[in-house]
Amino acid sequence: MSEGDFPCDQCGACCRNVSLAKETSYLDRGDGVCRNYNEKTKLCLIYENRPSICRVDAQYELKYHTEYSWNEFVDVNLVMCEELKNLTKKST
Length: 92
Ligand code: SF4
Hints:
This protein has about 90 residues and is mainly alpha-helical. It has one domain. About 35% of the residues lie in helices and about 5% in strands. A two-stranded antiparallel ribbon has the order 1-2. Iron/sulfur cluster (SF4) binds near residues 15, 18 and 36. Iron/sulfur cluster (SF4) binds near residues 15, 27, 50 and 51.
């Protein structure tokens, strides 16, 4: 990885849909939203210590760096971001 950080716009869509992936479902507070998500600030309460599954850069290093370039991995994740944003819009 060398091209900088993942361009997260802090929309919260991933944190509001943790029940959709088996890797994050343990974070579900019961309604699909992460138990560490602050609805008012739209920020993670444990951001500095958030699990590696919540970090695109960590996932890239751990699992995907042989499969994708960093820029490709960013693009794949941005597609998922859009899908989650659309899903969140429909449910609110
Ligand atoms: S731990 Fe933090 S970053 Fe991860 S889903 Fe929950 S609120 Fe979002």
